[in-house]
Amino acid sequence: MESDLQIGGDILSVQHLLQPQREHPSTVAEFVGLARSIAGDRSQWEHLVEYDATSRWYHRLRTGPGYEVWLLSWVPGQGSGTHDHGSSSGVLTVLEGELTEHTARGPRTLAAGSQRVFAPGYAHEVVNDALDGAISLHVYFPGLTEMPMRDDARGGAREGAPDTVRSNAAHSCSPARQTPVSA
Q: Which terminal CB of the chain, N or C, has fewer other CB atoms within 10 Å?
């Protein structure tokens, strides 16, 4: 049976119908594509990964106009605490291992290759409940500037804690220390 593509021909051979590829992503689909592209090219990140038993390790892998890409590692038992990402949207991609995302809807296991897209204000906690280390990639647009900590995944503010942690490196899924490697 013929498909529409076979009947219409190869769209890639009609160059004037294709949109030019942008240097930097600007749509949710393009940010998801950026994360998939980086995930698929281990040479961009594998040599940078470190594991730290005292705190989650992270490294800002890339920045562009209005976005940041972070690489994180998680040893068993490490978690982010319940938080949101302020005014930033994001794409979370598990590169290796397994992470558990806790939200008001309950826990969700994220295996290698899993992606989650979230809007500003989306509250969750990410934890490595597995017995092996995990690596994840996080794209934020606009770049992350605040990380309000929450009481729980249902969105209550944590009592007695500051409303917002402000810093380029402050992220639920980005630990409290950055590796001095150029981005």
A: N
Per residue in 160-180, pLDDT (tens digit) is 333 333 333 334 444 333 333
Alpha-carbon distances, residue 63 vs 60, 139, 174 (angstroms): 8, 9, 15
- Dump pLDDT digits (tens) for 27-70: 899 999 999 999 999 999 999 999 999 988 999 999 999 999 99
User: Cα separation of 132 and 98, whole Å?
Assistant: 8
Q: Which residues contact 49 (CB under 8 A, 6 or more apart)?
A: 57, 71, 73, 135
Tell me the pTM: 0.74
pLDDT of residue 96: 98
- Rounded to whole angstroms, the Cα distance separating 104 from 156 reads 11
CB 172 within 8 A of CB 127: no
CA distance 72 to 25: 21
DSSP 3-state assignment of 90? strand
Are 72 and 57 in contact by the 8 Å Cβ rule? The answer is yes
